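Following up on my earlier thread - several people asked me to post the actual chain instead of describing it. Fair enough. Here it is, all 293 residues.
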Amino acid sequence: MVTNLIIDRLEAGVVPWQMPWKAGSLPRNMVSKKAYRGFNFWYLLSFNFQRPYFLTFHQIKNLGGSVKKGAKSVQVIFWKFNEYEDRDSGEQKKIPMLRYYRVFNIDDTEGIPANKIPDSETHDHDFSPIEACENILSNWQDIPKIESGKSQACYFPLLDTVHMPDPRTFFKDEGYYSTLFHELTHSTGHRKRTDRHSLFPNHTFGSKDYSQEELVAEMGAAYLCGITGIENTTIDNSAAYIDSWLSKLKSDKKFIVQASTHAQAAVDYILQNQSVPGSPELVEAEESLVFEF
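Reply from S.P.:
Thanks for posting it. Predicted structure:
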């Protein structure tokens, strides 16, 4: 059951553990105040709820509230070992106990008094723009529209628009740019740019085309991080991300070679469409990069 729930989220295109920002407090039960752990943590986080509080149906009723019409619950699990004394031997033994619960997010309820709902705080730090990264963004002539303050990072080809969480919610400044570079590499495949998306038309999560495009986006992001000098902070996450998609492609080496070619073309497109020619530092950095497979 747990495996199927995870697969459902993955097939919806959600990989919650690839999230270098924190849009709100950790998912927790609003009554007990305890944060969810293990599977429950990742599963609830993957839904991108605006507020991280969850309650059972009875908890909602006890607080004087009700469930909104049409709202759907999500399933969480609880397990532990119960100890008991064996009647024959007198020995203490353990048996596993597993329970399932249905919970509702606080935003799917109504009527609960405001003073009973805790404040939800996002991660916040003093974001400091990185000049080399900002130069590439500000000088890219046909850069897609970037909308900040969103709950997730994604690119919409039909709108040619990138959604990004607020930069201050990222744990590190470099993580913000790495994530943004990933989405912008996706955007280079638009038909008005390199038209790479026509080569990977199957957008079904987990398909060969989808996996190939994800490889291209993350490798393009890694290249841009290298060019702007922030790869030392981001390379481990990129390597893990790339490895996860290679496993879906059965680790066939030809896929990473093909992906690297498309990723280099994407980066070249961005750098060749700058309103201001690249600084000597950027040019030198790009020429000094060596990519080995």
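Confidence is low (pLDDT under 50) at residues 279-293. That should answer part of your original question.
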